[in-house]
Specification:
alpha/beta, 8-stranded mixed sheet, 16 strands, about 45% helix, globular
Amino acid sequence: MLALWRGSRLSMQTAGAITLLSFVPALLAHYLWPKVEKYLWLGINGLLLPVLTVLYMASFPYYRIYRMNFNQMIFTGMNEDWGALFWTMVDQYGLPLRFAGAMLLAYALWRILRSLLAWRLPLLPIGHWPLAAKLVVRATFIGVVYIAVLLGIFGGSLGWQTAVDWENAGVTRDEFLNEAILDNPQAIYRAYNLNSRMLACNGLDFTVEDIKLLAAQLSGKQADSDNLDDYLQKSVVQGTDKPPRHVFVILSESLANWPLLAEYKDIPIAEDLRALLAEETTDYCPAFLPNGASTVSAVTGAVTGLADANLYLTTMPESFAAPYPTASAPQIAKLGYDTNFFYAGPATWERIGAFTTAQGFAHFYSRGDFGDVPGSVWGCEDECLYANVLARLTEGPSFNVILNASNHSPYDVDVLAKGFDQERTRSALPPAAQQDEELLRELGHYWYAQRELVKFVREVREKYPDSLFIIVGDHADRYNIEKQPDMYARYGIPFIVTGQNIHKGTLLADSAGSQIDIFPTVMELIAPQGHAYMALGQSLTTTSNKGVNYGFWITRKAIGKADTIPLVPESLSGGETPAIDNQAMQDYINAIRAISWWRPKYGPILDGSLLEKIGR
């Protein structure tokens, strides 16, 4: 019933779009050339209906082959041998019979359409009604049309905040039903979008010699190998002989760092996180950057260990062939940990379920696995997500990545009912922001997200004291109190580590980094000294004192844009502008980008001919 309901809402958008194809020309003909109007209705729909019925008939064998509704393979198929494809469809999938059935169905639907067009709907005899009554009837009619248009635009909703689209439609725990929610045009639209993203993965402009020199410089090795993986080899420097039982990396939606800064301490939206930071078993790096501007970049950074380099990894075939050598889950599994990825939203969003399992996670859980839980169009409420994570923990060691979703538009969690003191928060804001109800609602969701996060940490530690937690935002840059916040307040996210073996000073005093540095830090905290692994990033406990992402760089004292020449530092504290080693930072930025571009797109071997063979 949920699948039918979601599918019906989504198909309102499809129906609205298809209706416009015949409605607009027929409407024009009604006033300009009335005799043609009927033929436009019948002719245009006479073309559309066979297309829709052929797609419908084709979707059954297509699902049997790919276990999906129409996907990117329809674009891949355009490069195949069309003659071979045709005869395969004839021999194995009953093309003549299916096509005949589609045409018969199209003809039946067309006859029904003719009957509908010939039917004269009885109209209200309002010609002699009073003017006020006429206006009421016509206003009601316009209102109904307006609602119908909104339902068509927003996928069965009256606004974008609750709209159903192909990315958030799959909310059941059954993959077949998730695919069935998409009607055929929506599935093709999904395929088009994903294929466009993949084609946009045109990478960056580095030569193979550039990459070799940058990789050698980054790793501190000689530039004597054409195998890029040789430069990604690392070993644990400090390590531990008391590994934690359960390890958690929490990617918290829109968990910006600015509420944790001293100048915002009186705004009561981060009190639980502040209390956690004050504990002796917690350390904190305030100079940390997200991998990109969106959640999917955080996922790819934490899962693959690669930076955002103009590649859409969740759509690239290479991402689904095998885990990248820098992927976190397979390497942590070698230490005896069961690997799990928990997501508050649907498994179909950005293909996150298929992507994370292809990159080595043994188990993936999403909203469809959690039963009937409250939430928004983007995912279940954080407390429900954490409750499901806690319920699935066992005595055996586990590595868990958790991606929540409550601190996200449409910001519709009832935070007042959950205890958010809105008026106390309002009074702590600058006078210019105190009447900004939208900002207050957003701040309330930050408060709720950090409270539930800290509550989860404490519940797990009570049951499993030998646990380790790393907490970061997936990104910031969603809301600030200032209309024009500085770069650090706008883009910075926190890096918090707490739990077993953690104390003040676990992280370097000048530590800084980005999400590609999460995995190396985890390895230093859970693996024995000398253990070999592969990573692009560096550990914040040993060497990482700078971070870089799609557009910015950061150190413990400065932040700046990554694409200016020269780099222009901006103080984190607002004081005197600190000096930086411009060339060293530029080389680091280029090395991270170059390796993150070449390795997933072209593989380990630095061979210039691949640029021509595969295409830049």
